[in-house]
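not sure who needs this but someone in the group chat was asking about Alcohol dehydrogenase catalytic domain-containing protein from Halomarina halobia so here u go. i didnt clean anything up, its just raw.
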Amino acid sequence: MRVAAFTGFTGPDDVAVLERDDPAPSAGEAVIDVEACSINRHDLWILEGDSAMVGTDELPFVSGLDVAGTVSEVGRDDATVVAGDRVVLCPNQTCGVCRYCREGPENLCERYSLFHGGLAERALVDVDRLVPLPDSVDATTAAAIPTAYMTAYHMLRRAETAPGDLVFVPGATGGVGVAAVQLVDVLGARSVGTTSSAAKAARLRDLGADHVIEASDPEEIATALGERSAPDAVLNHLGGEFTELGLDVMRRGGRMVICGRTAGDRSAFDVPRLFLSHQRIIGSTMGTQGDLERLVQLIAEGAFEPPVDATYPLEGTGTAFADMQRRDAFGKLVVRP
């Protein structure tokens, strides 16, 4: 089979299409004929050498978390899926025995990790991580869901978002940001998103954003937010200086959930203001398989549809990552092997 592998850690030019042996499933495993695999900033960080998860000894490395396709083979007859089933993969990998696996939620697992290997014609996966796809949900749409939408949905749950709440989403045109804006609308809450692009601002409004601020500077954003009521919650996938911004604009008793570090690994903020205002900062990583199942159901019901900016053949995987680097895309970038 063919795979799009990372042969180095300097960027998109290090992506090459290689030949590998077809996978063979053991008990508890299945092989998927990959029809679509979306890419994420997580993959790009690996490709740029900015991730501790993958070292040079693992090159060439096949990334790709968000996989949808058709089961071609299973490792035993009593598996919960059979050849021909259409599925999307939950990329969570957990030990199944620690306290958090026993009590939940699963993404607190002490040995939590993520699946990699979807940028290929076929992928070897754990059977119990496969979620069935309704006929109304195509593979490209399904591949857009897991990382971005599981993350955003779980953040909204952690923020205890309720109908009518005002949710601030800085950087609302990234994968998690777009997902957050759509899901805030699905939950009956209201959103304020930011972008530096007028064209993307219009797209955000089309997706259900109630207010859009066209600015990237935290001070400008704070000034614009000051003209509105204070947000009940902040979904911060940027980190860095946007943590202080979130605390500055959030109401007393508000909740900020952080899931990323695109704007920086370190944040500084006023500690007295945090506790005197009874604000909360909550860390969150990915979501649960139950979250993914619920999201598939919502899409099947027509509640929302993930925007896909572009699709690429396997040979175009490097181009997809170059497009991600340029930050011009709006919506998911999906490789169709």
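also The two ends are 10 Å apart (CA to CA). if thats useful
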